[in-house]
Amino acid sequence: MRQLTPEQLKKLNLFKHYRIIRKWASRNNNLKEPDLELLIYLDCIELFSKIDFKEGTYSYSWDNRRWNKLLKYGWIKIWRERNRTTQKYNIYSLTFKSKRLINTIYKIILGEIDIPISTRRNKIMLGKTYTEKVLQKSIHNVNKDKYR
What is the overall mean pLDDT for the chain? Predict the structure, then answer.
């Protein structure tokens, strides 16, 4: 496996617009930013248990309802149910919805696609608050930057 040096990673500009992309993804999918980052963490694991989920939440703000909320709104699904004899606990995976969102984020970071600017696909473009108006300007700057 080829390893990247810090200089090569810097030249890729992967984290240049990550904050704006993260805000776009969380606002348009009714997720909190820690929830989105946790989904990215769980995507790297692929199949996980509730214990893996708890280990992943240590670096985020405490939210007692996070697990149930992600399960209820279809971000996480049960991959294998427990049967109380040979399988002591459920195994979970991300849903298609989660994987599609994360892949879209990766494509935006790599510059393959732009952040949507239509009001139908991007709630930020409605510009209801000052913060949304500032984010609109940032989104236009991200889309203009072809070296991201």
Answer: 93
